[in-house]
Structures are given as C-alpha cells and as structure tokens.
C-alpha cells in the first residue's frame, strides 16, 4: 500500500528510525521536543558511529533471540571464565576489564547518538585501576580510585570541549549534560565492576564468583523458559513488553534452588542462606534488565551493540550481572 503525502512528510520529519524494542516496530530517533541536537563528531576524540547496534530484527522465537547462537556464545564464555578462575585467578580480572571496557565504549556510542559526549579515556583508565588495584588494595582502594576517576573525568571534559569552536562558550556549552553522563558511566559500569576483585580476593574467591555468575544466569534461563512456555501476564508492557510475571516466577524458582545448592556445597553455607541469596538475586537481576531497557528506549536503540550473536552487545549481557554483583558480595560478606 502506498503512503499518502502528508503521512510521508510526517514520517520524514520524525527523523531516522531504528527497530523498536517492543515488537520490531520502528521508533523515531530524532529529538522528541523538535529541537535539533548537535550531531556528535567525536566520542572523546574518536569517531562516534551511530548507536543503532540492533541493526534489524534478530532471528529467534517468542523471546526475540537467536537461541542456538545465544547458547553457543554462553557456553564459550562460561568455559573461558571457568578456565581463568581456576587456573590463574588474575586472568579473570583481565576478562572483566575487557568486557566492562567494551561496555563503556558501547554506552559512550549510544549517548553520542543523542549528542552527549562521554569522556571515554579517563573512565577506561579509572576502570582498569579500580578492577585491578582493588584485588590487592581492598574496598578503601576502590573508593579512592573511584573518586579520583570521577574528578579526572570532570576536568577532562572542561579542558577538552567538543567541536572546533574556542573560548568560554565552547568550554561550557553542554558541560553539565556531558559531565552527568560521564559520571553515570563512572559508576555504571566502572565502579560496580570493582566489586568483582573483592569477591575474587577471598580464599574461596573462585567459588564465590561462580555462585554470583551461576545464580544470576539462572535468573535469565529460568525467566526465559517460563516466559516462553507460560508467559501471559505482562510485567511492564511499556518498558519491556516481553517480560511476564510467569517468567519472573521461573526466574525466582531457578535462582532460589541454584543459590541454595551452590552456597551449601561450594561455600559450606546453609541452604537458607543460599535461598535468600537467590531471592535477592532475582529481584536485582530483574531491576538490572528493566533499567537497561529504559536506557535503550530513551536512546532509541534496541541493543547496545552486536558483539555477541544472539545476545547483542556486552552491556546487554552485563546489565543483570552488574546489578546483582554488589548485593551478592554484601550477603556473602555477612554470611562469613
């Protein structure tokens, strides 16, 4: 069917579109208020491609995934992670640095699509300092290195304003906007990732990391399975249309069972402690997924990237892990 001229003109005025996260619909990526955002030329001095990493619709079933590819990537990542954890623990920190570093670049590119400049260089350097240094320096080092990273990042934007214009206007225009986004990325994911070495540094550190990752993954697997088989009642139709309460119940069941078993047999804890940990994980993992969905909807993209077939970008896999990391570390610390 053809498109009548008024509708065609309205569609063109709305700006370019990317596949929507809801059901493959196109959503406009142009400014909602009608004011044109400046086209970002750089992301901290580097070329900033558009953040429509989703490209087109991903092949898959009801949950919108290429399931065979997702399983293959998941198994490969799991094998690499276990090998790093139990052969040379410090190698796992390298894996964390690479994954979180890619996530930071993905976030910067996504913000750049809206004309927001994230200061990538100082954030990447600070993230490496937080992840690697905290393994030996502990929580105090993590806090201090985060504060230092934040201060350097704020100064970086002031001393290296975007664009070719010079003077006070160039140095101050959009500073609060860019500095706020940069501070956000300093905390999420850079600061949160610094809790990984706090888990790993314990005598049973590899076991603790396995518990953290396995229980969080069970939230995804249980929710996916229950949602596909039984999902009818939408949890949040606007934010994440594919999430259902049935899927949440599946996540909760799998997390509680997995947590109880792993804490009991890997960490010599009590079944109730593991069950409590699993219940906390499912809440925070779900929040992480929903918050990532809100960010992507606000930026008008479907995925943060295309690095992992069947999964999207690095941040699309790190979202729930980042949100469960701190609660798991705190609970295991309290359990002793």
Which terms summarize this structure?
336 residues, mainly alpha, two-stranded antiparallel ribbon, two-stranded antiparallel sheet, 11 helices, 66% helix, disordered N terminus
* Cα distance spanning the termini: 66 Å
- Indicate the mean pLDDT: 81
Spatially, the strands of the biggest sheet line up as 1-2
**Strand percent estimate:** 5-15%
Number of strands: 6
Radius of gyration: 21 Å
Q: Tell me about the largest β-sheet.
A: 2 strands, antiparallel
Amount of helix: 55-70%
Helices, by number, come to 11
Order of helices and strands: HEEEEHHHHHHHEEHHH
Provide the number of structural domains.
2
Shape: globular
Low-confidence regions: 1-63
Quickly give the structural class: mainly alpha
Subcellular location: Cell membrane
Pathway: Phospholipid metabolism; CDP-diacylglycerol biosynthesis; CDP-diacylglycerol from sn-glycerol 3-phosphate: step 3/3; Lipid metabolism
Biased composition (Low complexity): 12-25
Protein name: Phosphatidate cytidylyltransferase
Explain how this protein is built.
By secondary structure, the protein is mainly α. The chain has two domains: 115 residues, no CATH class; 127 residues, no CATH class. 66% of the residues lie in helices and 5% in strands. It contains eleven helices and six strands. Strands 1-2 form a two-stranded antiparallel ribbon. It has a two-stranded antiparallel sheet with strand order 3-4. Strands 5-6 form a two-stranded antiparallel ribbon. A hairpin with a 6-residue loop joins strand 1 and strand 2. Helix 6 packs across helix 11 and helix 8 runs antiparallel to helix 9.
